[in-house]
Design a protein that fits this description.
By secondary structure, the chain is an all-alpha fold. The protein contains ten helices and no strands. Helix content is about 70%, strand content about 0%. The longest helix is centred in the middle third of the chain and has 29 residues. This is HTH tetR-type domain-containing protein. InterPro entries: Homeodomain-like_sf, HTH-type_Tx_Regulator, HTH_TetR, TetR/AcrR_C.
Length: about 220
């Protein structure tokens, strides 16, 4: 008997199945027929929700970004912690599913689609920068941050981080990436008016050490 499901429920099932298959087989080795077989659905059902496998990968990534933004927003909304602590938790991915994120980033890179990478980076910058702007404004009220451009500073710093450090456009060596991360931390300290070393945790991960927030 054919089971009728709500539009949102069926779409979520397809995304779930795709993410599991991409993780198990890799994006390139997963065919649309694999997804159809896993869910026992017709090809027409798949194309009712997604125009292509690439569009489905977009949806998988966007859902992950949704979850990331929810975690960041929860940290930003916590009235019990300082702006510096919030910045540390958000920028060091505290409490996030990093293994899942690394896996999706790897599979997205395998797609070989520059436009997809650009859309992903733009989505992160546009959605995370307002959250961080709020944190910066809290820090300004607390007297720990000082900048005339809280919104623009966050947009520019995030864009630099996503494109230069996390993007696939440059084949940096480990030493070069570390140097870029050090420069980004230095710029963040300057534009936010904090003492040198405050954002050292931004490059500690590239030294093989996640750092700690002993300055917060």
């Amino acid at each position: 008997m054919r089971i009728i499901k709500e539009h949102g429920e069926r779409r979520t099932e397809i995304i779930d199945a795709a993410e599991n298959l991409f993780a198990a087989k890799g994006y390139a080795s997963t065919a649309i027929s694999d997804i159809l077989e896993a869910l026992n659905i017709a090809k027409g059902t798949f194309y009712h929700y997604f125009v292509s496998k690439e569009a489905l990968m977009d949806a998988v990534i966007e859902r992950y970004i949704d979850a990331e933004m929810a975690v960041a927003q929860a940290v930003a909304d916590d009235p019990k912690i300082s702006a510096h602590e919030k910045m540390f938790r958000i920028l060091t991915d505290a409490g996030r599913d990093n293994e899942r994120g690394d896996r999706l980033e790897k599979e997205a890179s395998a797609v070989g689609n520059a436009d997809m990478h650009q859309r992903t980076m733009a989505s992160i910058v546009l959605r995370l920068s307002p959250i961080l702007e709020g944190v910066v404004r809290q820090g300004m009220r607390e007297g720990t941050f000082n900048t005339a451009y809280p919104k623009e500073c966050m947009e520019i710093l995030l864009a630099a981080s996503e494109f230069i450090l996390h993007g696939s456009a440059f084949a940096w060596s480990s030493a070069e990436r570390l140097q870029k991360a050090r420069a980004l931390a230095w710029m963040a300290e300057k534009v936010l008016g904090v003492e040198e070393g405050r954002f050292s945790y931004l490059y500690k991960r590239y030294e093989g050490d996640g750092g700690c927030c002993d300055q917060c």
